[in-house]
TrEMBL record:
Enzyme Commission number, as recorded: 4.2.1.1
Record-linked PANTHER family: CARBONIC ANHYDRASE, CARBONIC ANHYDRASE 12
Keywords: Glycoprotein, Lyase, Metal-binding, Zinc
Species this chain originates from: Sphenodon punctatus
GO terms for MF: carbonate dehydratase activity; zinc ion binding
Pfam families in the record: Carb_anhydrase
UniProt protein name: Carbonic anhydrase
Cofactor(s) required for function per UniProt: Zn(2+)
């Protein structure tokens, strides 16, 4: 069992009285995670289900988003964030919990346009290592991203707190943001810049408040939605996942800080262990469907009907992600941006040219 812990709410007002403590019960696994060393162990993930049976069960996360399981749902609306812009006169608590770096969030933060209203609890990150910088948990058509951030909320319409909600089938809602390499990101630096103060397990520091929505992509209306689980033990199947289609970008230097700055051991440990590879591998999807809020583009539909079998140099058309060696579903995230009409005529022309050569 997970021991009961006491933690102080995420935010403290400068110059004011401390916010009352929030007592967390035995099920507060999101606050008192096993350390990374415990999770990895000699057998790694394979051993989780021995102690945590849900980890070997159904509705597990993360998953790979591939064409065969995606289904457009016109009823999915853009998420609405409330209270995400936190004043700089208030402070978040940033903690190294031995498994990740966690920033607690105030109960004034919430999301709407879900089946219930969900109140924020915390955010944390997952990443790889310098030799294999593919640390996202979710993947898209088999592609890993450099890292992933999770913003965890609980169903406050039905449950009084996160420890009550954590093992309920409708208890949690997590926003997931995929992270790739690009330009320097000043918003993420508001967290990364404090890593030196939480280098070792159980260390914590205060981070001035900022607009947490800055950590999200611009397109809040494009996302993958499915029912899944916590990605760490006890792996309760209690999460309504919203994984944004559009990744955000951080610089190579920022990723290096994420991969090298933290340890899952305490300061006085004679054998310090770097905090790396704190992501769970993709799980089987149990013949479920993932709802998507976006149409995948005309190119996706064409892929069912059009294929070009051989002999075509397709490298000159960067937006396309189509196999020219065998019939396949054509899918590319960029075809809509490149222009559906241009894409269609290119495929038709390619098909005619191939037929002529035959």
């Amino acid at each position: 069992s997970v021991p009961a812990v006491t933690f102080f709410w995420a935010i403290r007002t400068l110059g004011g009285s401390p916010v009352p403590a929030v007592r967390a019960g035995p099920r507060d696994v999101l606050i008192n995670l096993p350390s990374l060393l415990t999770l990895l162990g000699p057998d790694g993930e394979r051993a989780w289900s021995k102690k945590y049976p849900f980890c070997g069960g159904v509705f597990q996360s993360p998953i790979d988003f591939h064409n065969e399981i995606l289904q457009y749902d016109s009823t999915l609306a853009p998420l609405e964030m409330g209270g995400y812009n936190v004043s700089s006169t208030e402070q978040f608590i940033l903690t190294n919990n031995g498994h990740s770096v966690r920033m607690n969030l105030p109960p004034t933060m919430h999301i709407r346009n879900l089946p219930s209203q969900y109140t924020a609890a915390q955010l944390h990150l997952h990443w790889g290592n310098t030799n294999n910088p593919e640390g996202s948990e979710h993947t898209v058509s088999g592609r890993h991203f450099a890292a992933e951030v999770h913003i965890v909320h609980y169903n406050s319409d039905k449950y009084p707190d996160i420890m009550t909600a954590v093992d309920k089938s409708d208890g949690l809602a997590v926003l997931a943001v995929l992270i790739e390499i690009g330009p320097f990101n000043p918003s993420y630096e508001k967290i990364f810049g404090h890593f030196q103060d939480v280098k070792f397990r159980d260390q914590e520091t205060l981070v001035p408040g900022f607009d947490v929505q800055e950590l999200l992509p611009d397109r809040l209306d494009e996302y993958f939605r499915y029912e899944g689980s916590l990605t760490t033990p006890p792996c309760y199947p209690s999460v309504l996942w919203t994984v944004f289609r559009e990744p955000i970008q951080i610089s190579q230097e920022q990723l290096l800080v994420l991969e090298t700055a933290l340890y899952c051991t305490q300061p006085n440990d004679p054998a310090p262990v770097e905090m790396v590879n704190n992501f769970r591998r993709v799980q089987e999807f149990d013949e479920r469907l993932v709802s998507v809020s976006f149409r995948q583009g005309l190119c996706h539909c064409i892929g069912y009907f059009v294929h070009v079998r051989f002999g075509l140099d397709h490298s000159t058309y960067p937006p396309m992600a189509v196999s020219f060696s065998s019939p396949t579903i054509a899918y590319t995230d960029n075809c809509m941006k490149a222009g559906d009409t241009e894409f269609v005529f290119y495929l038709i022309k390619a098909k005619i040219q191939t037929d002529t050569r035959e």
